[in-house]
Design goal:
The complex is a heterotrimer of chains A (324), B (306) and C (517). Chain B is built from twelve helices and no strands. Chain B is mainly alpha-helical and 306 residues long. Chain B has one domain: MetI-like fold, CATH 1.10.3720.10. Chain C has three domains: 170 residues, Periplasmic binding protein-like II (D-Maltodextrin-Binding Protein, domain 2, 3-Layer(aba) Sandwich), CATH 3.40.190.10; 92 residues, Dipeptide-binding Protein, domain 1, CATH 3.90.76; 216 residues, Dipeptide-binding Protein, Domain 3 (Dipeptide-binding Protein, domain 3, Roll), CATH 3.10.105.10. In chain C, strands 1, 8, 9, 10, 11, 12, 13, 14, 15, 16 and 17 form an eleven-stranded mixed sheet that branches. In chain C, helix 14 runs antiparallel to helix 15. Chain C is globular and about 70 Å long. The chains are: A mainly alpha (324), B mainly alpha (306), C alpha+beta (517).
Amino acid sequence: MFAFIIRRLIQAIIVMLVISLVGFSIKNRIGDPVRDLVGERVTPAEREVIRDRLGLNDPFLAQYVRFVSNAARGDLGLSFFHKRPALEVILSKLPATLELVIGATLIIILVSLPVGIYTAIFPRSRLSRFTMGFSTLGVSIPVFLTAIMLIYVFSVELNWLPSYGRGETVDLWGWETGFLTWDGLTHLFLPSISLASITLPLFIRLIRSEMMEVLETEYIKFAWAKGLHARRVWLVHAFKNTLLPVITVFGVQIGIMFAFTILTETVFQWQGMGFMFLEAVERSDISLLVAYLVFVGAMFVVVNTVVDLIYGLVNPTVRISGAS
Amino acid sequence: MTIWWQRFKESYLLYSFRRDRVAMVSFGVLVFLILVGILAPLAAPFNPYDADSIDIMNSEIPPSWMEAGEKSFLLGTDIQGRDLLSTMIYGLRLSIMIGCGAVLLQALLGVMVGLAAGYLGGRVDSILMRLADIQLSFPYLMVAIFISAIFQVAFGIGRYEEMAVPLLVVIIGLAEWPVYARTVRASVLGEKNKEYVEAARVIGLSPGLIMIRHILPNTMTSVLVISTIQVANAVMSEAALSFLGLGMPVTKPSLGSLIRSGFEYIFSGSWWITLFPGFLLVILVLVINLLGDWLRDVLNPKLYKG
Amino acid sequence: MKKILVAVLTALLLFGLGQGVGAKTLKLGLDADPVSLDPHVQLSGGMLQYSHWVFDPLVRWSQDMRFEPRLALRWERINDRTMRFFLRKDVTFHSGNPFTAEDVRWTVERLKKSVDFKGLFEPFDEVKVIDDYTLDIITKKPYALLLNMATYIFPMDRKFYSGLDETGQYKDAIVKIGPSFALSHASGTGPFRVTFREQGVRTVFERFADYWDNGSPGNVTKIILTPIKEDATRVAALLSGDVDFISPVPPQDFQRIRRDKKVKLVTFPGGRIITFQLNQKRRPELADPRVRQAIVYAVNNAGIVKKIMKGTATVAAQQSPAGYAGHHPDLAPRYDLKRARELMKEAGLKNGFSATMIAPNNRYVNDEKIAEAVVSMLAKIKIKVNLKTMPKAQYWDEFDAQAADIQMIGWHSDTEDSGNFSEFLVMCPDAKTGYGQYNSGNYCNARIDELTLAAQSETNLARRAEILKEIEKILYDDAAFVPFHWQNHSYGAKKNIQVEPIVNTMNFPYLGDLVIQ
């Protein structure tokens, strides 16, 4: 176990080195960050002076070595646009994205569990067929189309919910949260629904098929034979055994949900990491981009390590590579 | 040949297909859309790539059944004065080409990596999965910027238009292979300790043969199902890329980029520009998903697992 | 005594407004927020808008393009190199420091140190302080546009920005990247103080209680500025009532905003000319004036204005918009496809040629759509165009590298004067003098250079206008570039917000004077 973690740690460092190297090699292709910092009237000569001062004209290797040695001390450089340390910028945008994902997750759990169970128990009922059809339709609509339709209906036409941004946030030990104000919650609503719309149908289906399979097993038949109450059989015996695979898939899907936040955040002007990333591309804020890549790379390694650990614990037939 | 056909005719696949009306309709619609796409030059009333025929003064004409509509433009025109129906048909063709091409590439790469990582394990597994981590931390936008930068150095802007489709296939293909790799690896881990694999190993079959002949078929269900989702994703990724100037050129819009620009017209009153391409894309993705569902039910009720 | 009483009463009144029912909050949704609180760190439309809210210029442009006294009460020319300014008394900065001529001198010196502004202030020699409220601005050569430049002088609080901050950096340092005192602190004389700022998220402005301009009708006590980049989202925010005032409004949504009962659309003619430059060095065909003329004749710019800009732009045939000294009234747009084809034939290019084109997709109003329309217009004279569009961050690199044969550029004159267009866009490119910096067409005509330079130091305005008009005429006949239109500025607002009186051709809405009913 310990050896496994150490090994993963070394791998993580290699991963981040590779990422930063690739990030560095493309950074000159995104545009000149100095162009975004100065007005259009500034002469090329003046721009060169600024580039020199920022060290952008140094040889590639010198820049990279400087970056790595700074990064080793936890300094990922200064964002050109935000004029603050890049890591600080990323961390300040992280809560927004996390809250969006949490909001979507809550919606997925609250909707997919009852619906999934219901459709599994009564697969032939009209309501079940309707929900299944509807969920296929849901997964087929591109996320920004869903988002803009929601804005159109609920903000513009009905005027029920706000259309953009995070609303009022509360500073909770450095964590800007929108969960604690009514305003923040109403702002969270539409973005969470659009984000959830991608994976919700998937989970309804998954729960349904897992549950149906479990309902066919011997021990459920046995439970029926024992004359247990229907609700007890469904919720305790059957459902409990459905959960495990659902949780496993959930781990994988959360990563995908993070990827989709970019689109949702753009439409709703949600000030999270996806929004920040797109803006950094558009403003060629290359130092922020490289920092972002390294940060996300680190996140992936950590999450995968945890998933592999859990997987090893849950499924003892899978041996963790490196475990002695 | 005839034996294969005979076998197919008696297969459970065809039997269940015939009994499932939804699957039959979806299949019909999908075939129709693909045919229309392939035969775009014949099916479309105009050639939207022929810049000479487009007149700005025809812009935003509503569909022909509306009061201000014109007979020659059945579904109306977009802001450039292009016939919307023709543009959609050509866009459909591009989207199908890019979507299928990219997903084939993803699947090919992903399945190979996933099989190798899952079956061989150990160091190979570590290296390949870290590679997947690296790939996943690069959003496809970064991959796109990288590849199109290389491209631009090699060919210059002038040939962008003709090279855009293969370029996008490579970009989206490279960006998302880890999705397959992860899934396949997980199902391989589940399969490789089962009796039949043990048995194959005991007879002394080579690892390559075991992987391809024995394990691969058992991971195919999940691969097929992911593919239906991935085709839809690829189409949408391409749309996002064209916004960054990295997708199809504006003069040759795909279905995805049509919707992306339709997004701008949501409040404009020219609803047809938003609605029709969106509708077509939803239909396309919907039938692909419905077929995917059906396929999953037939092949294996246990999906998405692990 | 009386003065104090007035001040106290005003303060009480404003305090009362801030607290009571009279408090008027403006929720503002713009496409971007100011990149810094330091007005000298970047020369851009957004930063100048901000400067007008938190600072005050010596003079500013009125809606009808006359000079309106602000911190300078009046001015007089002493000799052909010197202008004397008499400053307003009893003006205080947000910090409480009094405003004097020293602050103006200090500000101009800081401007000359700013990378962005130093080019504009190159003609300035020095600022001489005569007494606390009188100063002379002396230029190196006779300079006709001194007052135009005075609109860029937003006096900053010298005392406030002097000394060292807690990191040991000079408070007046102009820092492009990284923290600085002026990045996060501001003290001007303007109608609003910045009370909260989170870059890219929200900026809050509150009315300055001791604002000198008691004659201003403005009654906005608080502005909450939120950047909303996505066009459709910005419009949705206005329609849903989440914000009160947005800018810009994409032309495709004009109809919808006009139809809505709660909101209105306000547009104002702007001075930004949109053009395509035809690169003669990359493409020998484009060096032939007949081919360039054919292209100008083939481009239906009136159609673009009507269909793509929805009528909210003025069709152009030259660089200078009406009202500018160099505007030549006889130059008319010339869309004529038949003539275009004839010209191509004359040039021996009946079968056309193919060319590459680049355009940005987020810099000018509907830039990408304009470029796309041009592709089909040029196809009609058999010029096959390969178009690539990209975001502005990547665009300027490609533009500078002259990566394509036909490149789009829009230009707003910094001085609200015709000469500025020619200096940057059509004079022969010269890295040493900086002239022709944005001339990617490589059009080079010695006569144009000569005339443009002559106009710079001509202080007789009538003679100067003649020179500038001659330039436009030559460029027109030579088809030096392809003119499209001057784009309008557009604002969407709730009905009770009186936007109309505060907008102008520079797109600097004077929010200090904004009235909310």
